[in-house]
Amino acid sequence: MADIRLDKFLADAGAGTRSTVKIIIKKGRVTVNDVIVKKSDIKVNTEKDTVCLDGKKLIYNEFEFFMLNKPQGVVSATTDANDKTVIDLITEEKRRDLFPVGRLDKDTEGLLIITNDGKLANNLLAPGKHVEKKYFASVEGSVTAETVKLFAEGLDIGDEKPTEPAKLTVIKTYIEDSGDVNDNIISDMTRGDIKSNIEITITEGRYHQIKRMFKAVGMKVLYLKRLSMGKLYLDESLKPGEYRRLTEEEVKLLSEK
Ligand code: URA
Whose CA is nearest to atom 3 of ligand 1? Predict the structure, then answer.
């Protein structure tokens, strides 16, 4: 990394906003290579210079990556007038340029990557890259072999083009509170009583895509959770609303197809 302004260094390192760090610098709380610096616009080298705030060394990373288990009720945006955002859930001192990689619906849970690396986000989201996103869903009704075939062929969900082939796997079909379905009794049940747990892998990220795909075959998604994006899987030890930084290995995984 090259030379950057001292106030940008501090803001990127999570010391505050660009304007608050200017005040911090003016107060003489910042040293560069052990010398107090009171000007915000001096240039520092992110690799060679040692920048301290109140005597504590600041670590500069050009890019940061978090894995969030997005809970329901939170919007995938950086700011929102009414709702809590996924960025609000990153509770530690954080840089201001973080954003979510793509969107999950307000009622969808699961893996969401939060970063300031626009290039990596683009590579994961660009339609031409066909990065696989795997979801778990609970749907109303019974997913048949015919449904699986229709998803594999691509569906007309009202867009210009049909969806790309999606892989649909049935985990179980059941009647709520009654255990697994016995084939003999399915016919006696109303359709609404039967539910299916499925996994679905898609390579696009259209608006409400999975819900609209099920709607196209007359079914309704009751619960949706993203499990993976490319080769990165959700750390299941993270409860909804919890997050952690990605390891270096995980960041590398994201760049692989
Ligand atoms: N498909 C949907 O319908 N919603 C999501 O949040 C993600 C994929």
Answer: 208
Tens digit of pLDDT for each residue in 178-209? 545 555 555 555 545 899 999 999 999 999 99
How much distance in Å is there from the Cα of 163 to the middle of ligand 1? 13
Task: Give me the residues paired with residue 170 across strands.
Answer: 198
Mutate to test the pocket of ligand 1, among 208, 226, 228 (most ligand atoms within 8 A of CB): 208
The CATH number covering residue 199 comes to 3.30.70.1560
Q: Give 228 Cα–ligand 1 centroid separation in angstroms.
A: 13
What's the Cα-to-Cα distance from 81 to each of 62, 77, 109, 133, 241, rounded to whole Å?
Answer: 29, 11, 21, 29, 20
- Rounded to the nearest 10°, the torsion over CA 234, 237, 241, 242 is -100
Q: Check whether residue 38 and residue 102 sit in a common domain.
A: no
- The CATH number assigned to the domain holding 38 equals 3.10.290.10
**223 and 139 fall within a common domain:** yes
Interval 136-180: pLDDT, tens: 999 999 999 999 999 999 999 999 999 999 999 999 999 886 545
Amino acid symbol at 123: N
Q: Rounded to two decimals, what is the model's pTM?
A: 0.86
Residue-wise pLDDT tens digits, 77-118: 999 999 999 999 999 878 889 999 999 999 999 999 999 999
195 Cβ closer than 6 Å to some ligand 1 atom: no
**Are 185 and 119 found together in one domain?**
no
Q: Is 217 exposed, middle or buried (0-12, 13-18, 19+ CB in 10 A)?
A: middle
Q: Model confidence over 100-110: pLDDT tens digits?
A: 999 999 999 99
Compute the distance between CA of residue 196 and CA of residue 106 in angstroms, rounded to an integer. Answer: 22
